[in-house]
Write a structure and sequence with these properties.
The complex is a heterohexamer, with three copies of chain A (about 55 residues) and three copies of chain B (about 60 residues). Chain A has one domain (about 1-15, about 25-55). Helices cover about 80% and strands about 0% of the residues of chain A. Chain A has two helices and no strands. The longest helix of chain A is centred in the last third of the chain and has 29 residues, at about 25-55. Helices cover about 80% and strands about 0% of the residues of chain B. Chain B has two helices and no strands. The chains are: A mainly alpha (about 55), B mainly alpha (about 60).
């Protein structure tokens, strides 16, 4: 789970923070929250697809 | 331990398919993106199998690479 | 050992902030680039804390992920 | 060799599968086969160049 | 320190050598030297910012 | 074991030179691409030596970095 959290941080930083400013503004925070939710959605989808394929 | 290995595999696949299928994160995964992710996983597995087979042939034919 | 861990962390942060803030290397870091790097470090720490918190909530709510 | 195979898979996926569809079509398969051959050619060339340099 | 040196080499190769030729020409050497200095400047700045944040 | 280390090194060099020299895989490596790969390996070694030397100087002059 630690590794997953590290991945999320790196991926969502790249997607959401293109010009780092003096604080996380509200649109960046919204982007990070969405990015994290989508990353988990994707993770669960990949997990399901992979499981059904290797069975 | 097997669980850790499974999660590592999923992390790797998700990394690749995220880069392949997601441009900007949005409020939900639409069906087009979902299809892309599922296809991505399956084509990446196909490609892995294809390459592993071809690689084994190469090594046999050349006695190494 | 703790020192090694610290350096590894700095390497990772510098990797990300270099990619974010530096386009072409020039004869010195101008103040704009310096500000970008310092902000980058701080926003990346903010984001890590934000994600870790949200992640902990997710796991509690769903009993896993 | 396992590591090399992993590299090949990742590199050739990126080069050949830009829009994953419901199967590997023939042009994708052709691309993967070529990509793998070229990756091995490159590997052998790198190996030779590196060996002759460090001797 | 070895890891840092490895990072520098990879980053500065990408920034400075886009078309590898038969030798490092003077503009490439200049670019590499600057790149390395800036990478170290950045490393020190990151180190300071990180230290003051986590205290 | 030494063989494994050699292969790891080649994997890393090939990774970098593949990205530098190959755009789309074609039916064979043309001579231009071959030259690019050989030059890439040699310039990457040059750059490594150059940086290692400069790095050692830095550490000596500053008593650290």
């Amino acid at each position: 789970a630690q590794e997953l959290l590290t991945k999320i941080s790196e991926k969502c930083f790249k997607k959401c923070i293109t010009k780092p400013s003096s604080s996380l503004d509200s649109s960046e925070q919204k982007c990070i929250a969405m990015c994290m939710d989508r990353y988990m959605d994707s993770w669960n989808l990949v997990s399901k697809a992979y499981s059904s394929r290797i069975q | 331990q097997q669980r850790a290995q499974f999660q590592e595999q999923i992390n790797k696949f998700n990394d690749i398919c995220w880069e392949t299928c997601i441009d900007k994160p949005s409020s939900r995964l639409d069906s087009k993106t979902e299809t892309c992710i599922v296809n991505c996983v399956n084509r990446f597995i196909d490609l892995n199998l294809f390459c592993a087979q071809k690689f084994a042939q190469m090594i046999q034919q050349n006695g190494g690479f």
